[in-house]
Specification:
Blueprint lengths: L5 E8 L9 E9 L9 E7 L4 E2 L5 E6 L2 E7 L5 E9 L2 E9 L1
Antiparallel strand pairs: 1-2, 2-6, 3-4, 3-7, 5-6, 7-8
Length: about 100
């Protein structure tokens, strides 16, 4: 995923997300300009059709050089979820379907 300022990739551990099962999100981010990455990183997820998010607030820590590990993820119901990655106001989203 990318914006004019940022390029990110991510993966979940485990790779297949199951309803009601905790998972981890690992992120790699790279600023496109010479500016450093923001230290204010927030991650969340919502269900746009249901107009609500998760019941849990995931934590996020830098593991160095544009890499982050986020724990505390759990999708409590099946359907279309939207990951929200916010790097100091640069917001990127990605949608996934959980069965």
């Amino acid at each position: 995923m990318s914006s004019s300022e940022l390029e990110i990739s991510y993966r979940t551990v485990p790779a297949k997300i199951a309803v009601g099962e905790p998972f981890v999100v690992e992120i790699a981010a790279c600023a496109k300009a010479a500016a450093p990455l923001s230290r204010q990183v927030k991650l969340d997820a919502t269900m746009p059709e249901h107009k609500h998010g998760m019941n849990y607030r995931p934590s996020v820590v830098s593991t160095g050089e544009g890499r982050y590990r986020s724990e505390g993820w759990l999708f409590h119901m099946p359907g279309r979820w939207e990951f929200v990655f916010d790097f100091g106001g640069v917001r990127l989203t990605d949608r996934v379907r959980i069965e």
